[in-house]
Design a protein that fits this description.
This protein is of the alpha/beta class and 402 residues long. It has an 8-stranded mixed beta sheet, with helices on both faces. A 4-stranded antiparallel beta sheet has the order 10-11-14-13. A two-stranded parallel sheet has the order 1-12. Helix 5 crosses helix 9. It is globular, with a radius of gyration of 21 Å.
Length: 402
């Protein structure tokens, strides 16, 4: 059978390797999973039960493409409190933030259109964008977000339709975009007539430091699409996210959702709304943050203890991930496949999968949220041992990684 080219492109995204690297018995720092023990199971079950007990006749019926209005109102209020100027009429419920990424790409990208992504960036976003066959422009990451000077060079030289960014505790590096860069990004988008896709699934998960306004807060021309999700703060299997955007973009996104899946599950939307009516989401998030901060600090301590001096890592203020950087010339994919997994049964996400060009070779993403204390200590110790052996056994080539 002759399948569409988009199927082949998405099949090489690297997502399958991440799931394989999280198999039972392995100490996995690969998956970007929340800890299932922290899911409010009882409260969610009660919310579903209450929804059915007090169900209107329309509960199991179709809803609108925008989604259940009371839940959209609650989300609009949360975003307003976070500095985003929006209303319930400009909020749409989605199948996780991932659907929002796909809808934005479908709205904006034709084959060969330019899109700027951070290098490295979220693997799932690349899998979504690949379907539409864009021209990628990679902008390197710095300690405070993407390199704005390099971004300006790209925009001056190439026609770009969209910039994709995860400004808060970026996936995969854990970095936070500075206030000045957020403002400058909007200014550049206005000058060059570009849409910004702001992906914010980790925004509520700040463990230390002060929160910065979302990029959408500075949006003066309705060209920022903001994505949120319950996956990291409540439970992934709810498959419930949301987006807000200016009228022109929003209307197009709603129309595309109608043609994609008609609507998000009415039952799910009603039940999550019921949960929010009877529970304090922020109190739950606070409990989650306490656990995740402890694990992040434990991983940082273990990395300081066990990693060879040639390997560097950051200490993020929130989110799910931290970033390892090995010497130039080191191949983290080869190291993972030939040394780390076979000899230690430990896994991470190699950096090559996290850039469109596949040319960033000497780094890796580590997840700490879904690993217990013992496995963090043991896994990092074995990672350090294998890195020492790999760095001692072969000289590292002094070549650029990209």
């Amino acid at each position: 059978m002759k399948l569409a080219k988009r199927t082949k492109k998405t099949s090489h995204s690297g997502l399958d390797e991440i799931f394989a690297a999280s198999k039972p018995g392995m100490i996995s720092f690969a998956g970007g999973y929340p800890d299932s023990k922290l899911f409010p199971r009882v409260e969610i079950e009660q919310a579903f039960s209450h929804t059915f007990q007090s169900a209107p006749a329309t509960l199991l019926q179709y809803n609108s493409s925008k989604g259940y209005l009371p839940l959209r109102e609650k989300l609009a209020t949360r975003m307003q409190n976070d500095g985003i100027n929006t209303t319930a009429e400009s909020v749409m419920l989605t199948q996780g933030a991932q659907q929002g990424i796909d809808l934005a790409a479908r709205l904006l990208l034709n084959r060969g259109d330019g899109i700027v992504v951070e290098a490295p960036t979220y693997l799932g976003a690349l899998a979504a964008f690949d379907v539409y066959e864009p021209n990628y422009y990679e902008v390197p990451m710095e300690a405070d977000g993407m390199n704005i000077d390099e971004l300006q060079k790209v925009l001056m030289k190439h026609e770009v339709k969209m910039i994709y960014t995860v400004p808060d505790f970026q996936n995969p590096t854990g970095t936070v975009m500075s206030l000045e860069k957020r403002k400058t990004l909007v200014q550049l988008a206005n000058i060059y007539d570009i849409v910004i896709l702001e992906d914010g699934p980790y925004r509520d998960l700040r463990y230390t430091g002060e929160s910065l306004p979302p990029i959408k807060h500075f949006d003066t021309e309705g060209r920022v699409i903001f994505l949120g999700s319950f996956s990291k703060i409540l439970a992934p299997s709810l498959r419930l996210g949301w987006l807000t955007a200016g009228p022109e973009l929003f209307d197009g996104l709603v129309a595309l959702k109608g043609g994609s899946d008609v609507e998000t599950s009415n039952l799910m939307m009603n039940s999550v709304d019921s949960y929010l009516e009877t529970n304090d989401l922020d109190a739950h998030i606070k409990e989650v943050k306490t656990t995740y901060q402890h694990r992040k600090d434990l991983m940082v301590s273990a990395l300081e203890k066990y990693l060879p001096s040639e390997v560097h890592f950051n200490n993020p203020e929130g989110g799910f991930f931290l970033w390892l950087t090995m010497p130039q010339g080191f191949d983290s994919t080869k190291f993972l496949q030939e040394s780390l997994i076979p000899n230690s049964n430990v896994s991470f996400v190699p950096s090559a999968n996290l850039v469109p060009s596949k040319q960033l070779m000497n780094a890796a993403r580590l997840n700490f949220t879904n690993v217990n204390d013992k496995d963090i200590e043991t896994g990092v110790e074995m990672l350090g041992q294998q890195l020492k052996l790999a760095l001692q056994s072969k000289p590292i080539r002094k070549t650029a990684t990209r």
